[in-house]
Every structure is written in C-alpha cells, then in structure tokens.
Amino acid sequence: MATEHVESGELDRRIGMRVRALRLRRGLGLRACAELCGRTEEWLRQVERGEQRLDKLSTLVALANVLGVRDLSLIVEDRLQGMTCTVTEGGRIRHEAVPAIRQVLSTPIYPPQPVDDLPAEGEKLKRRLAVAWSAWHGSARPYTALGAVAPGLLQDALNLHRAAGPSMRRTIWALLAETFQLAQRFLYCVGEAELAARAADRAMVAAEETDDPQLIAISAWTSTMAALGRGQTDEAFEVASTAATYLQPRSSSSQAVLSAWGSLHLFAAIACAKNHRGADAWRHWDLAHRAASAL
User: Fold this and answer.
1) Helix or strand (DSSP H, E) at 29
2) Which of 24, 34, 42, 248 is the most buried (most CB within 10 A)?
3) Count of domains observed in the chain
4) Transmembrane residues, as ranges (predicted)?
C-alpha cells in the first residue's frame, strides 16, 4: 500500500507536468486556463505541481476541452492503463465500459443461468464488491479498476437475484442494491447522468426490499446525487428529505445510519440553495452539522 501511495504521488507529478506543457503549448496563462475550467488559479497551480489529483472525470474533461485535447490519455495516460476514454464533439465523455453497463441495465436475463450453490456464490459476490469498492477509493487508477469489473458484477448480481428462492431473496436484494450503488457512482463520475439515475433508481428499489435502514439511507443518498447531477433539484430535495424523515427515529441505531442521515440533510440543503430557498437550506445545513458533530 505504501509503494502504491508513492507511485501515485509520482504519477500525479507527471500528470501535472503534462498539464503544464499542454497549457503552455496552447498559449494560456495560469489564471485564464483556470477560469475557463471553472476553477481557481490556485487549484490549477496545485494540479501542475502534482499536489491536486485529477480524480473526477468530468473535471478532467473540462480541462481537456480547454487544452484542446480529445484523447484523455494525453493527460492521464498511466492512470487510464490502456482504457479508451475520449471526449466527443459535443464535449461528452466516452468511456469504453459504459456501453457494456448500459447493455446489462437494459437487457433482461431470461432464463437465469443455473447457480449450483447460491449462498457460496452470494459470498463470492460480496467479496468481489468489497474489492471493487476498495479499488474505487484507494486505487491510483479508479476508472480503470471499476470500469473493468462493473459490467460483470452487475450481470452476476442480476443473475443471482433471478435464481434466488424466498429464503435467500433478502440477502441477494442487499447485494443487488450495493452493486447498483457501485455502478451509479462510476456512471456519475464519467458523466453518464441519465444512466447513473437508472442505476440509482434500481438501487433504491432493491434496498427497500431489504428493510435495512443503512442500505436504504445509502441508496437514497445515491438517488439524490444522481438527481443533483441531472439538475433535478426538486426531485433531489424530495428524495433526500423523505429518506431523512424515514431515518429520523433510526438515526441513533448506528454511526453509519447517523452519517447517512446527516448526508441526506446536506444534499437537501444543496437542493434548497440551488432553488434559492435560503432559510430551508440553512435549516437542513444545521441538521447535517448536528449529525457531523455527533459522529
């Protein structure tokens, strides 16, 4: 892990040098380039020094557009590690994993593939999800790591769900909810807002079948993020506030539920602020702050 951290820091420095070279080739000053990206001059300075990681693809695309770069590997070559990720004429991201995920989300699996040992396969999927989340949070190449495994995880989770009998259904619903949450996070970060919303909706449906407050809270958080990503602030507020109300009497059951409850109020505050509802925004902000202080 320490070696990976050192390698990641060196990679960030090489990426920063590449950004600086592309900016200078474009004839852009630091401030002008930063403003065109919708960022501060200090942020771009930190990127070029390797002190600020380009870890969100939508930010990377904004920078690529300003620098006149179509192929994102010209900026973050090592981090993509062979993955194809380009910017289209309309300025949208095209990640090679997206068509496979779209196909899995759109194509029914009938009949389901036979599963010899459903509990064992469920445990195996649970371990694979843990590895995928770990890669997403800790890898120097998160888009590569998750893009490579997300379609297969979705396919296998859906197949287990279709093959599950009544005794295993709740367990598989929980795995399915977490798999959809993972897919939503990836799709949101690569700029596929509509597809991310589809995954978030499915995560919410699956979570509700489990009656697990923590899973419902996280899925509601995922749905709210997807709605905000599409600019649907009314929908984001409705989902966040409804889920927070549901969680209110359960918020003391665990720190995870309390954290999710506070995060939902934070999203509700953002939605209110975007709708110019200042008083409501501060009210939800105060509730989020109260939850954070209690953790």
Assistant:
1) none
2) 34
3) 3
4) none
Residue 213, helix vs strand vs coil: helix
Closest residue by Cα to residue 105 from 175, 179, 165, 174: 179
**Residue 90, pLDDT above cutoff 70:** no
For the entire predicted model, the pTM comes to 0.69
Q: Answer whether 98's CB lies under 8 Å from 192's CB.
A: yes
Tokens matching residue 286: 């105060």
Alpha-helical runs (H) found in the chain? 2-26, 30-37, 41-49, 57-67, 73-80, 98-106, 118-138, 142-163, 169-189, 193-208, 213-229, 233-247, 255-274, 278-294
Token pair for 107: 């194509």
Identify whether the C-beta of residue 96 lies closer than 8 Å to the C-beta of residue 83: yes
The CATH number of the domain holding residue 14 is 1.10.260.40
Judge if 228 and 293 occupy the same domain: yes
Is residue 140 a contact partner of residue 11, using CB atoms and an 8 Å limit? Answer: yes
Two structure tokens written together for 166: 């009544």
The CATH number of residue 274's host domain is 1.25.40
What token pair was written down for 269?
């505050």
Quote the domain boundaries for residue 21.
2-95
For 85, phi then psi, to 5°, come to -150, 110
Q: Residues 90, 105: one domain?
A: no
